[in-house]
């Protein structure tokens, strides 16, 4: 089976890593940039890499479009001009779904099927360097098939995506854009606006930067996201965002009013309602890189502590697949996340860590 990925960046590269090495699968990566193609090979993310669109697309069983949202229509258009393998499924990973669905409807794709997709996982990082085979684990992966898509084709794609260990959900494209606009696009916009507001204050007094602590960092991590990827997403979902920003203005106005009236009860109510809703959010589903076999521990801030833990695990032949220092402790029960490759190592680590003086949380 040949799987072709156009644009092997954070998302395309992570998909490639999910598929590569699986029995019977060859992963082909395409980039318009020759220097990127070399990087795909050097990093062993794909089996074959090319700058030729024809070479990449011909004979492919699945084609994943993982380029910026603003480029998706042009890729679909170019593919419609080529002879593709009968039954080939083209899908995308774009963060907006209505416009690419409309584009696919208007494009004569002959003997191939388009099914829109959006893995609801990622990060503020970008490029193949940030790709990870566990990026999608435990996350939702939205598919937005139109009515003309056969159950057989949908199931074939959903089955392939089992390799990501994500949970597949079917959503209408327009509904997707409304919801994702509110829970992802608007927060990115607000994070950027907030950082820029503080950046301007900081120009006259760098203490702003020095004192910026946990809360500021937590809610602004996503302001570090790739400007061009986000330019495309926000422009593509413009109508939804304009409506959301009006509602946001309403929230701001309401806080202005509460403060002017020194309405302490109003503030308590806002925090209480927000806290109650937020506590119900599914944990570790929001784009964090998670694995099924994670252990969280609290560690004191002393030199060499991480080395000591890694050494102890190594002495007991426990292989770490990932180690992460978590800046935000809100959603997880510890500050150091240790990921293991399998259940056996995970179990053994949970036995070992307490004997080293660490309480292990899972
Ligand atoms: N960043 C994230 O967390 C998530 C992003 N997405 C979507 O995934 C897609 C890819 O985003 P990322 O992987 O984050 O970005 P990325 O920057 O890591 O990768 C983008 C890829 O597209 C290629 N590319 C860039 N400009 C291009 C152009 N003008 N023509 C052709 N190729 C070009 C790059 O060479 C790179 O391989 C976007 O459509 C984005 O909306 C979906 C879920 C999460
Ligand atoms: O970094 C994060 O928390 C994200 O929100 C990542 C993300 C970015 C874009 C998407 O379309 C989906 C997920």
UniProtKB/TrEMBL annotation:
It catalyses: prephenate + NAD(+) = 3-(4-hydroxyphenyl)pyruvate + CO2 + NADH. One of its GO terms (molecular function) is NAD+ binding. Belongs to the prephenate/arogenate dehydrogenase family. Keywords: Amino-acid biosynthesis, Aromatic amino acid biosynthesis, NAD, Oxidoreductase, Tyrosine biosynthesis. This is Prephenate dehydrogenase. The lineage of its organism: Bacteria, Bacillati, Bacillota, Bacilli, Bacillales. Its EC number is 1.3.1.12. It holds the Pfam family PDH_C. PANTHER family: PREPHENATE DEHYDROGENASE (PTHR21363), PREPHENATE DEHYDROGENASE [NADP(+)] (PTHR21363:SF0). Pathway: Amino-acid biosynthesis; L-tyrosine biosynthesis; (4-hydroxyphenyl)pyruvate from prephenate (NAD(+) route): step 1/1. Gene3D superfamilies: 3.30.70.260, 6-phosphogluconate dehydrogenase C-terminal like domain (1.10.3660.10), NAD(P)-binding Rossmann-like Domain (3.40.50.720). Residues 294-362 form the ACT domain. Residues 1-289 form the Prephenate/arogenate dehydrogenase domain. NCBIfam families: PRK06545.1-5. It comes from Paenibacillus selenitireducens.
